[in-house]
Design brief:
Length: 92
Amino acid sequence: MTTQNDSDSIWSKSIKEDSYLFLEELFDKYGRQLFAYLLARTKSPEAAEEILYIVFIRAWQQIHSLQDEQALKHYIHKESSKEIIRLLKQLA
């Protein structure tokens, strides 16, 4: 069984070893689910895809400041919400 400390050390080690590969793994893990959420909110595949990429690029840029995968999930959700609001303001 993996403890929280083990997960944290795996998280830190993975980030340090190859952050690009780590980002790709995270995108594979959360990308579809996030895209579905964004598509439901924006009603536009193009907008959902654009926001998805923006959010993951920001997450990658901030990855070293995030403590664990739970913090990453929170960050992705928060940034997605911000981008949806930004898009809606642009369209208004």
